[in-house]
Design goal:
The structure holds two protein chains of two kinds. Chain A has no helices and eleven strands. Chain A is mostly beta strands. In chain B, about 35% of the residues are buried. The chains are: A mainly beta, B mainly beta.
Chain lengths: ~120, ~120
């Protein structure tokens, strides 16, 4: 069972609205990520964070912004939603495991539709 | 830049058959991880199997095994005795140990197991 929670699960919103997608994790992981999954299913990193007060843009340019005021919370905000923002947004966190592997945990995603 | 390529957009096999999904990647780093993730219709990303680049032995997890060819930068997934529950999108992913430990995903392969 995932220890990373995303809300809402589904969201349909009108053009021009401001929205915030929530992501919280209870594992104490420092590194967190937002991936955008387009309708063709490809996943692209749009934001990541090394820890509190750290945010970086990912490999795909995005009009969204993120903040990291607390370790467990990494919300994503769209100031003015457009139909081109319609996508699934996946939040994830990672840690270095004792086995030497990096463990990635994904949330269940938010499917956003902008009409 | 790191890239991951999955050249099979869709595959379909009969239940109980064996299927192999292809993945090639490119990276200039020497130490990295490779993963196969499964994404069923519920959209939750589920780790199937992982491989550390410096280990030559191919990873296995029950019915799932990989063929890791480091020199060829190839990382295929074999599913033996396929089951209906294996129907999903499968993503190959590369994780660099340096920096932010970002996952780079392939385009995905939609696998359908037919009864």
């Amino acid at each position: 069972e995932a220890d990373i929670y995303q809300t809402p699960r589904y969201l349909v919103i009108g053009t021009g609205k401001k929205i915030t997608l929530e992501c919280s994790q209870t594992m104490g992981h420092d590194k967190m990520y937002w991936y955008q999954q387009d309708p063709g299913m490809e996943l692209h990193l749009i934001h990541y964070s090394y820890g509190v007060n750290s945010t970086e843009k990912g490999d795909l340019s995005s009009e969204s912004t993120v903040s990291r005021i607390r370790t467990e919370h990494f919300p994503l905000t769209l100031e003015s939603a457009r139909p081109s923002h319609t996508s699934q947004y996946l939040c994830a966190s990672s840690e270095l495991l004792s086995s030497g592997f990096y463990g990635y945990t994904f949330g269940s995603g938010t499917r956003l539709t902008v009409v | 830049a790191q890239t991951v390529t999955q050249s099979q957009p869709e595959m379909s096999v009969q239940e109980a058959e064996t299927v192999t999904l292809s993945c090639t990647y490119d990276t200039s780093e020497n130490n990295y991880y490779l993963f196969w993730y499964k994404q069923p219709p519920s959209r939750q990303m589920i780790l199937v199997i992982r491989q550390e680049a410096y280990k030559q032995q191919n990873a296995t997890e029950n019915r799932f095994s990989v063929n890791f060819q480091k020199a060829a930068k190839s990382f295929s997934l074999k599913i033996s005795d396929s089951q209906l529950g294996d129907t999903a999108m499968y993503f190959c992913a590369l994780l660099s140990i340096q920096g932010a430990q970002k996952l780079v995903f392939g385009q995905g392969t939609r696998l359908t197991i037919n009864p």
